[in-house]
Amino acid sequence: MSLFDLTGKVAIVTGSSRGIGKAIAEELAAHGARVVISSRKQEVCDEVAAAINAEHGAGRAIAVAASISDKGQLEDLFAQTKEQLGPVDILICNAASNPYYGSMDGIEDEQFRKVLDNNILSNHWLMQLALPDMRAKNGGAIVVISSIGGLRGSATIGAYNVSKAADFQLVRNYAVENGQHGVRINAIAPGLVKTDFARALWENPEALERTEAALPMRRIGEPRDIAGAAVYLSSPAAKWITGQMVVVDGGATI
């Protein structure tokens, strides 16, 4: 059996209608998992699930819309997943938000709370929902998509970076508590990736050229670059790795 074989595993990927989440869901399915596509809008989730089923066969993907800011919707996400596919083996906490750009001393309380709620509290909720069944089976993998922003300061996305740094500690604490139950919990810290989140930069040729010139690998990332790390951390290949943060950034932080 391949170290990366996920045949029969059930995976929820939040924020998987596009970008990094979509790429992760596609690669998990390619490695044998049955995947749940989830984001706020049912229609776009349906489209992604249909494409995966067309490629890998009926029943490999389902779509369940849910907002990460609504605990009731997340509870329904897990209930529907269990009813249709079975207990969750893999959870990818990918969805996040950043409603503010600028100095932290200018951010409104409501904006700061939204960042913390969507990027930290929602991941806490998702783990709480996934862990009972994982512990019961003595196995499971949770991966939080954080950011290299959590490793550095910023004059424009400081609140976002605070939330991403907190995700690292969330992972470490949950890993300490659940390693004895066979559940592994890790984080991925992507650098700049070609997604809608960073569209303003990579659509500006001059800004993109400056950014890529400073990277050892001379290019920004593609969503699939992050998907490979997610497959690895979800698979038997990483069965002795927990509480870690894996940087995938083309060398930006070095």
Topology:
Layout: E1 10-14, H1 19-30, E2 34-38, H2 42-56, E3 61-63, H3 71-84, E4 90-93, H4 109-137, E5 140-145, H5 158-178, E6 183-190, H6 199-202, H7 205-213, H8 223-234, E7 245-248
Parallel strand pairs: 1-2, 1-4, 2-3, 4-5, 5-6, 6-7
Helix pairs in contact: 1-8, 3-4, 4-5
Short description:
With 254 residues, this protein is an alpha/beta fold. It contains 8 helices and 7 strands, in the order βαβαβαβαβαβαααβ. It has helices at residues 19-30, 42-56, 71-84, 109-137, 158-178, 199-202, 205-213, 223-234, and strands at 10-14, 34-38, 61-63, 90-93, 140-145, 183-190, 245-248.
Count of separate DSSP helical elements? 8
CATH architectural grouping: 3-Layer(aba) Sandwich
Sheet with most strands: strand arrangement = 3-2-1-4-5-6-7
CATH class: Alpha Beta
Structural class: alpha/beta
Shape: globular
The helix content is 40-55%
Rg, Cα atoms, Å: 17 Å
Largest sheet: 7 strands, parallel
Per DSSP E runs of 2 or more residues, the count of β-strands stands at: 7
- Reported by name, the CATH topology is Rossmann fold
Number of domains: 1
Mean of the pLDDT scores? 96
Name the beta content range. 5-15%
Order of helices and strands: EHEHEHEHEHEHHHE
Contiguous uncertain segments of 5+ residues: none
**Cα separation of the termini:** 36 Å
CATH superfamily: NAD(P)-binding Rossmann-like Domain
Structure explained in plain terms:
By secondary structure, the protein is of the alpha/beta class. The protein has one domain (10-192, 224-248): Rossmann fold (3-Layer(aba) Sandwich), CATH 3.40.50. It has eight helices and seven strands; from the N terminus they run E-H-E-H-E-H-E-H-E-H-E-H-H-H-E. Strands 3-2-1-4-5-6-7 form a seven-stranded parallel beta sheet, sandwiched between helices. Strand 5 (140-145), helix 5 (158-178) and strand 6 (183-190) form a beta-alpha-beta unit. The longest helix has 29 residues, at 109-137. It starts with 9 loop residues before the first strand and ends in a 6-residue tail after the last strand.
